[in-house]
Amino acid sequence: MPYRRDKNGEREYLLTREHNSLFGYNYTAITGGVDAKTTDLKKIREQAILELQEETGIMSGLHFVKKFTSIKSSDNQYFLFTEEIGNELRVSVDGDGSIEELLVVKKWMRVKDALQVLNDPVAIACLMTLENRELK
């Protein structure tokens, strides 16, 4: 979940509005995936970097923050990566040409605005994890 600082120094997080089978069109975090058997954090990080580049055009190193699951009964594991991004970097790319890609919107949002539009519990958990780190 990349972020930047606005002119007042407040964090803005990059969210994407795309279609999700659970929530319809909704803002969420930029996501990607690896084979479920992959446990090598280096490979998972490389995939996260590639996904960020493909979806936004942002070239970033990303650093690992946290690994978590969404609920007790789920085997899904989530790996949160972040990086502070400069304002000069673009967040628009051609995509793969699919209709779904054409309907994706990316937007920088402050926490209070993001919490108004996020319905995805994993995206909210990521956002709050990063905000709580900032407060420490």
Largest beta-sheet details:
4 strands, antiparallel
Pattern of helices and strands: EEEHEEHEHH
The number of helical segments is 4
Beta-strand content = 25-35%
User: Shape, please?
Assistant: globular
Helix fraction, binned, reads 25-40%
Number of strands: 6
Uncertain residue ranges? none
Kindly report how far apart the N and C termini lie: 19 Å
Gyration radius, to the nearest Å? 15 Å
Secondary-structure-based class equals alpha+beta
Mean pLDDT: 83
General description of the model:
It contains four helices and six strands, in the order E-E-E-H-E-E-H-E-H-H. The chain has 136 residues and is an alpha+beta fold. The strands form two sheets. Strands 1, 2, 3 and 6 form a four-stranded antiparallel beta sheet that branches. The longest helix is centred in the middle third of the chain and has 16 residues, at 41-56. It is globular and about 45 Å long.
